[in-house]
Amino acid sequence: MTSISIIGTGNMARAIGALAVAGGNKVEVIGRDQSKAADLAKALGGSATTGEFGAVPAGDIVIVAVLYAHVVPVVVRYGDALAGKVIVDISNPFNSAADGLAIPDDTSIAQEVAKAAPASASVVKAFNTIFGVVLAQGRPLDVFISGDDAQAKGAVAEFIESLKLRPLDVGGLKMAHWLEGTGLVVMGLASHGVGNYDFALGATVPG
Amino acid sequence: MTSISIIGTGNMARAIGALAVAGGNKVEVIGRDQSKAADLAKALGGSATTGEFGAVPAGDIVIVAVLYAHVVPVVVRYGDALAGKVIVDISNPFNSAADGLAIPDDTSIAQEVAKAAPASASVVKAFNTIFGVVLAQGRPLDVFISGDDAQAKGAVAEFIESLKLRPLDVGGLKMAHWLEGTGLVVMGLASHGVGNYDFALGATVPG
């Protein structure tokens, strides 16, 4: 059982929150719009609670599930309230054509979060290669993760396993740049090769 | 039936060549070392032939299966001999730590090949997210491809289908940069999350 806080009330927040409740985790939902957070917590059921935006989150793992441009500002706004937390960045900083990243080449949102967060916090990139609509179906997907802190990565992996998903480590936080790039490939597949949003990347040998 | 030429005699050349022969395609093997090319053509059996390095390749599709640093020099060396051909770049320009690309951020080996090739040639990125050892197993893997020329991409897709593999278009040639980055994620999975080379990325919804 992991205690998590989800900052955000969109599709990914809802999908992760639902799986987290089903997996027996303690879930806190936080939104800048308190009523939306309360609505989502109610919809999630279980023991889901609502937290106050900007206050110290109840969860040991804090999943920042907001649009990419808001991720670092949210972390900055929280400041020392995130001390000691494991911060999970799930964002996809796509440019408008979805063929490049809307951030400099030598970084990633996850790495920028690590710069902005308290030194005692750890950052893990996860979930960004999965569509919320697919995640919501509750199938056993692969979740690619990266991060520099092995203990934090282990905690996130354990949480992911509680969702009946398979965590797959791709390396250090620098790899978050390439996971964000892999997010672009997933989008490219959805709009070209596969042509829908009913799939996920997996590490398998079919056949 | 597609007529292809493979420049290179390594593991990927062998794996693609074997599947191509099994799929009923016409296969020419070309190597800077002519005897190695002849050995591979013999090993492939079927109607596989050996071509002369630098001469006009027999195949309509030319697969450049050499180490990444040699890809552009080979294309430059060929020059007009590649006029009208569909050039397939399968390379992975990894840095020594395999957490970044050994080329500038705004390009890819495939895009550099397009700059170096004759104007009448087309370039398609393909196969770089698959380990040769897995490809050699003959299982029905997903092959991610990108390119700007729809006709060339269609020809490569048809060839890939003859190998009993599934071609999945991720978009224009600019996406080759992110396919090369996805190659890094595959390597990261092999050395961390999966811990072996017995898998491939696929676009699936398991369960």
Automatic annotation (TrEMBL), chains A, B:
InterPro entries per the UniProt record, alphabetical: NAD(P)-bd_dom_sf, P5C_Rdtase_cat_N, STEAP_metalloreductase
Task: Specify the domain of life of the species encoding this protein.
Answer: Bacteria
For whether the record's keyword set contains Membrane, the answer is no
Put simply, this protein is called: NADP oxidoreductase
Q: Does the keyword Oxidoreductase apply?
A: yes
- Please provide the record's keywords in A-Z order: Oxidoreductase
UniProt GO MF annotations:
oxidoreductase activity
> Could you tell me which residue ranges the Pyrroline-5-carboxylate reductase catalytic N-terminal domain spans?
4-93
